[in-house]
Backbone:
């Protein structure tokens, strides 16, 4: 298996497109993510408190770095309306070098 880069993709679901935009803007403004893509109107079927729910949500796809995950997750939790928000990170195994460099630059990697 290929060694992952330092860059990650983080998925967060939100109750609405407006909430997703508010969270996305805050984490990008704070330098915790280089980019926030918002996919409105995803359908989520999940089990919560013993019942199966079928809801419309928005998906936020964040580009960040592994070293920022804990701070990013904490910030998202503080802004989120859900009691237990989805905040999961996936490693980027490969990517265009200039794009990965951009993620690092936008999240403060080059300043350290």
Residues:
């Amino acid at each position: 298996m290929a060694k992952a880069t330092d860059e990650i993709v983080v998925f967060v679901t939100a109750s609405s497109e407006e909430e997703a935009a508010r969270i996305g803007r805050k984490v990008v403004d704070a330098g915790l993510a280089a980019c926030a893509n918002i996919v409105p109107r995803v359908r989520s079927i999940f089990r919560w408190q013993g019942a199966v729910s079928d809801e419309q949500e928005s998906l936020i796809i964040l580009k960040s770095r592994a070293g920022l995950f804990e701070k990013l997750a904490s910030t998202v939790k503080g802004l989120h309306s859900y009691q237990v928000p989805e905040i999961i990170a996936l490693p980027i195994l490969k990517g265009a070098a200039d794009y990965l460099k951009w993620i690092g630059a936008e999240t403060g990697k080059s300043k350290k």
